[in-house]
Amino acid sequence: MTYETIIGIAAGTFTSAAMLPQLIKVIKTKETADLSITMICVLITGVSLWVYYGFLQNEIPIILSNAFSVLVNLTLLIFWFVFRK
Amino acid sequence: MTYETIIGIAAGTFTSAAMLPQLIKVIKTKETADLSITMICVLITGVSLWVYYGFLQNEIPIILSNAFSVLVNLTLLIFWFVFRK
Lengths: 85, 85
Known about the structure:
2 copies of one chain form a homodimer. Chain A is 82% helix and 0% strand. Chain A is mainly α. Chain A has a single domain (3-82), classed as Monooxygenase (Up-down Bundle). In chain A, α1 (3-17) runs parallel beside α4, α2 (19-29) packs parallel to α4 (60-82) and α3 (37-57) packs antiparallel against α4 (60-82). Chain A is elongated. The model of chain A has no long low-confidence stretch (mean pLDDT 95). Chain A binds chain B through residues 3-4, 7-8, 10-22, 24-26, 29, 31-36, 38-39, 42-43, 45-47, 49-50, 52-53, 56-57, and chain B through 3-4, 7-8, 10-22, 24-26, 29, 31-36, 38-39, 42-43, 45-47, 49-50, 52-53, 56-57. Chains A, B: The chain crosses the membrane at residues 6-24, 36-56, 62-83.
């Protein structure tokens, strides 16, 4: 594995995992008032397009990391509506 | 430009732009209590690594889109501390 590949995998892991602590915070506090619903929707559109791109290029790491992001952000979207005041 | 490239550029544009509405919401409401600081820091680490990866691979679109994300998320980080109660 090249140095570039390792940096790429590290970068992808961080950006894919970033929304997980946000989701955990929302589940704990049941508060979503300060979260932008536009941000969540734009992000879901973007990571879904990355999954599609991964399929087009047949790149499993892109598919897996972004499919994980789609799941996390869809869950965040559901909780956003559940906890909306 | 191939179909794959267009999908990739669209995906990158959406994921890079996603945090912009969140930043605008924070500036408008001055409220950040529900935002996860861990999420912001992990995201900054991830997109910074993508910028570095872009330099290693000499891919201008990766450098530019992720440098934009670094800027947006650093600004969000600053406002998180400014508006912290």
